[in-house]
Amino acid sequence: MEKMNVKPATGKLGVLCVGLGAVTSTFMTGVLMARKGLAKPVGSMTQYDKMRVGRGENKKYLHYGEIVPLATLDDIVFGAWDVYPANAYESAVNAEVLQEKDILPVKEELEKIVPMKAAFDHNYASRLDGDNVKDCKNRWDMVEQLREDIRNFKAENNCDRIVVLWAASTEIYVPVEEKVHGTLAALEQAMKEDDKEHIAPSMCYAYAALSEGCPFIMGAPNTTVDIPAMWELAEKTKMPIAGKDFKTGQTLVKSGFAPIIGTRCLGLSGWFSTNILGNRDGLVLDEPANFRTKEVSKLSTLESILVPEDQPDLYTDYYHKVRINYYPPRNDSKEGWDNIDIFGWMGYPMQIKINFLCRDSILAAPLCLDLVLLSDLAARAGRFGIQRFLSFFLKSPMHDYTENEIPVNHLFQQYAILKNAIREMGGYEADQEID
């Protein structure tokens, strides 16, 4: 073991969530219940997973927190922004994800989490009509107000550090525009000129967070930090960024199952994925412009796992289709159906059917916890810019497309990258041995 060079996790860790809907209220309630010993943070890698460090007689299996200094659940202080004024308790009840018995024991703490006014543009999420919204002169004023919110929250709650997590709805698709998104100077100028077409509200949150020395996590498929200007800001402020889009249901299955096809050298003719979802996210995604953002994210998974150039006989011209259907009766209990047409020996066709009946927020909440704790760790370890080791938790991993970098979507390769980053931050040697 080499010397570990990570600052200790001293003091309180502020977690500022953009959006106080089903995912965030489930995340908050679970953390508050877990630290009272009334619930288990199942699904959280930072709380449950163990990894090997060392080899031979020095080999041992440790929890992440035994390898690196992670903030504890007791360290966390929650805050939020939302377009609706409901506090975290009201939001948790309204979301109908958790049963009353799992909310009431922390009702008092949840009621104290009252959302700040959101930086919002109705054009980016036309299905939302909340009135808990900031009055901003322009995008630059939006940034300044958000920065003030972060400073005030940090001071009022005596926080040592802050992490900002986007767990709000998917915005309409914003294509990367080189003249606006290519450099930090151009981005700042566009904000000052109130370029509403190219500057989404989420970009203002990210800019504000990084400028205030806070890691930023993009939990939706928004373009937000997936632009060179934000990478430049992250380098300037020495802050980590992670994104994009929580890998919860269908894409989790896809990133884990596609490697089976590729590893076994079976051919793929087509992969059809469809979802039904009834929560606020489903409502927003029912708008075609917003779904386009999600579609780009979900379609990107297969292309770097089953690559035509690597195996032209097996993966040339396969058909990949993704749909999301808003279906209110299901609320947060979403369902993903996958039909996979494969072929084998001598080209004979076969089919695979997967039906994943899951709970969106129950799967997303542990991802929120892990991304927050590991982003905070990365900042204390001096890591900044794109955090590729967090791709394990995300649907459409960030990568430097300007250098033709290929993102890693293969779940088990992502897991190896995650473990090695933690090993290195803990002062252990990285390795590729599977165990």
TrEMBL record:
It comes from the Bacteria. It holds the Pfam family Inos-1-P_synth. SUPFAM superfamilies: Glyceraldehyde-3-phosphate dehydrogenase-like, C-terminal domain, NAD(P)-binding Rossmann-fold domains. GO terms for molecular function: inositol-3-phosphate synthase activity. InterPro entries: Myo-inos-1-P_Synthase, Myo-inos-1-P_Synthase_GAPDH, NAD(P)-bd_dom_sf. Residues 249-361 form the Myo-inositol-1-phosphate synthase GAPDH-like domain. GO terms for biological process: inositol biosynthetic process; phospholipid biosynthetic process. Belongs to the myo-inositol 1-phosphate synthase family. This is Myo-inositol-1-phosphate synthase GAPDH-like domain-containing protein. It comes from Phocaeicola dorei CL02T12C06.
